[in-house]
Design goal:
heterodimer, A: 78 residues, 2 domains, 2 helices, 26% strand, B: 166 residues, alpha+beta, BH3618-like, 9-stranded antiparallel sheet, CsrA_sf (chain A), bacterial flagellum biogenesis (chain A)
């Protein structure tokens, strides 16, 4: 992995069209600003694993029939 | 027609045209590329199921996000939309539901990462949107509704349960 040092207000350029700026450094946390084309997906890495965990949990759901009837009652206009 | 025996729905008959193809699987089930979307058109019940065709035990409960957030806008990245080979307004959205055992009022949905389906092409993908205010565990019901459902549910349990309560 490439490791670079940057100060507040300084940036990196990736692939000509993506800018990553160090906006603020405080209390063990770095705030980053990202400027990228619209088709570039920017995600916190842990989010993908959270989605996978959440799906595994949903696959074990038992009480969905109850939920269906509850939704029917609470959305009578549907 | 092909037959597939499932844990939740018993024996299913389906044709190849019914199969939804998820080229990258669904996170947590990355090897599961082929799924069926199941659900009766029971009026008022929006819950449907994605049944995996790779593992008969795996089915995910899903529902349309509009039941939870009326003007649902997950802000998908354009690259993800391109993968689905149709403009945004032709795509069909579902969110994955989780219901804690014995507490349906606490049900949540993953509004951050909808399952997006191109029905015509039978193509699907779970896409993580960019909206920071959309949670992976977003309550399906608001505070008041949760309280009401909880009370009604517990009341019904008491009524049908032990008559000899103190």
């Amino acid at each position: 992995m490439l490791v670079l040092s940057r100060k507040e207000g300084q940036s990196l350029i990736l692939n000509d069209n993506i800018e990553v700026m160090v906006v603020e450094i405080a209390k063990g946390q770095v705030r980053l600003g990202i400027r990228a084309p619209k088709d570039v997906l920017v995600l916190r890495k842990e989010l993908t694993e959270e989605v996978a965990d959440s799906n595994r949990l949903s696959a074990q759901t038992r009480d969905v029939e109850v939920l269906g009837s509850v939704i029917k009652k609470s959305h009578p206009e549907n | 027609m092909q037959k597939f025996k499932t844990l939740r729905f018993g024996l299913l008959e389906y044709s190849e045209d019914d199969v939804l193809y998820f080229p990258k699987g669904i996170p947590g089930f990355d090897d599961h590329k082929r799924w069926l979307l199941l659900g009766d058109d029971d009026e008022g019940n929006p819950i449907k199921w994605l049944q995996s065709l790779e593992d008969s035990d795996v089915a995910l409960p899903v529902m349309p996000p509009e039941f939870i957030i009326p003007k649902y806008d997950p802000q998908l990245c354009e690259g993800d939309i391109k993968d689905l080979k149709a403009p945004l307004n032709e795509l069909c959205f579902f969110v994955v539901v989780a219901v804690p055992e014995n507490a349906p009022w606490e049900a949540t949905a993953n509004v951050r990462a909808p399952i997006v389906i191109n029905i015509a092409e039978r193509l699907g993908k779970q896409v993580i949107g960019q909206r920071e205010d959309y949670g992976i565990r977003h309550y399906i019901f608001d505070d008041t509704t949760r309280e009401n459902i909880k009370n009604a549910f517990l009341e019904a349990q008491r009524a049908s349960g032990k008559g000899g309560a103190p």
